[in-house]
Amino acid sequence: MSPPDEYSWSLRELARYPFLDEAKGYISEEAPSLGELIKDSLWGPVRERGKDRVFEALDEGKVRIRDIRDDIEQEEELFSYPIARMLVSSIGDNFLVRRYSLGEAERVVTELSGEDDEMILKMASALEINAGMDGDLFTIFFGDYLENTERLRAPPWKLVNQDLRDGKVYMDREKFIRLLKERVFFIISEDLPAPVSDQILNNFERSIEQIEEKLRERKTEIKEIDLGKVENDLFPPCIKKLVAGQKEGENLSHEARFALTAFLRKVGLSEDDIIAIFKEAPDFDEDMASYQIEHIIGEISGTEYNPPGCDLMKTNGICYNPDSLCEQEWMNHPLSYYSFKKKKGDESGKEGDVKEENG
Ligand code: SF4
Question: What are the residue boundaries of the structural domains of the chain, listed by start?
Fold first, then answer.
């Protein structure tokens, strides 16, 4: 079935871009009732695909593109999107929400990369981004640029580094699609997790268990990242909190990323080890992470930066959970904390306890 005339997107396009308002309109007009969708055997393939979307995002970081040929497959693909959202909402885990939303946004990047420029502009307009073209370059109103690059903190995205003319930022196609991905990620994650009814929880009980199991596995893998000879048990509480936050997908501030990277480098982690930690974040962007890390460790700038001391950590609001060792008068740097603990550990064969040592 094709969308009615007032729709500006074909069913095939709505299936590929199910986060669009028109897709939501089509679903509310044409989809079966919630009871049928989540229970009726006729809609079993839709439920399977919905579950696959979440699994693929968790496992591979990207929802796979399915070959959708006829109207039936296109509707199945479209209706599977709300099913995936119901499953994610039923679990209500922040890491899962971000990982799933990013997996969908990655799929959209691949879809858009195969579209012509006209379609990309149509998408920008549907996403309420004020954009156009000038020759081969895309242009975007600078206010829209700022709004949609808030999370992109690497220097290549800073406004001062853009080709800015007459209030518009000029960029190539690849960069423009990357920017659209930010908007898509925001739209997909915005209302998740949504409230779910007992009817949904009961009917999806088995799928929810399977996803929760996969989520547990994924989180365990993350915890088991090998830090080599670096003894992360001896890290100060602030650094432990930042490592955990990074793995859980918290949007760490620039200061927090800087402190974490510089600290990990100083205690002996290689660039690859550090990237491995950053890689576990649901919104990991390898190019951006590499750029930031290489800058901090001196590969780009030629200057290796030192991690901030406790005073600056406190000023930046990232001195988390200070313990009894942090309260010592001489404690002024996270590296001092680590080397003290390491020394005590080496002397006694176990982790030192400052209270006993000094008491
Ligand atoms: S006092 Fe220093 S070492 Fe301790 S948590 Fe705060 S910043 Fe980290």
Answer: 11-112+195-217, 113-188, 226-358
